[in-house]
Structure formats: C-alpha cells, structure tokens
Structure of Folate family ECF transporter S component:
Amino acid sequence: MNKITTKDLVMMSLLVAITIILSRFLSISTPIIKIGFSFVPLTIAGILYGAKYTMIIAVIADLIGVTLITGDFFPGFTVTTALVGLTYGKFLYNKPKAMKNIIICTIIVNLIELILNTGNIYLLSGYGFMATLPTRAFKAVLMVPIKAFVIYKRLT
C-alpha cells in the first residue's frame, strides 16, 4: 500500500478504537494473564494494510489505551504490541488464505506475546518468570486454535 486515502485513515482510526475497546474494556484480565479478542482488529489491519501500518495501528492503540484508560505505561508492552502488529501484517497481507499460513502466524504471535510479556510482567511486578510461564503458556496454546479459527473465518 503506497498511498493512504481518507477512507484508509478512517478505517485505521476505527481499527484503533475497536482495538482499545476490545483490549481495555471487553477482556478478562488478571495480574499475569489477559484473555480477549483485541487481536481481531489487528488481523483485519494486517489483511488490509500490511506490516508497517498494522504495527502503527497497534502502537497507537496501545499508547492511547494506556494514556486514557490505565495510565501505567511500560514500553515493553508497546514493543510487544508493535511486533505482534508487524507479524500479522507480514503473514496476512497479500498472502494465500491457507490455514497453514494462519496457524504459523498465530503460533509466532503467541510466542512473541508469551516470551516478551512474561518478561515484562516479571520486570514490572517481580512475579517469577518461570513461575508465571506455565500458566501463560497454557493460555497461549489454548488461544492458537481460537485465533486461527477466527482469522480463517474472517478471511473466507
């Protein structure tokens, strides 16, 4: 995507807003785990706009969500969000709508979130990395088929 139109800007803004709502208000959060569907607008952005713009959408949504809603900014979570947006864009933009591609994408995204966010939680709270890893790994494994199914249904 080379030229951004007004329609693209409006769509990207809507995706940012939906990401914030799904992430901050319509998700289940504990100190070590968060379950929600905030990945859906990012996958849509990845399908429509590619890696660069999906990464920008993810970072803007994270920064606005932190600034307006929680107020507890930590750059590690923003870096993780940027990498997740980058991954969705790389794997979903102008790529075959094959389940294999989607599963690989969701596995990579979940590994990024698992490793980096577990480290971020350790740095922020002091919860042991290895103590929280099994719970977070279980959630990551559980979310792979859910994310893959939702993304596949969105593509077809």
The mean pLDDT is 90.
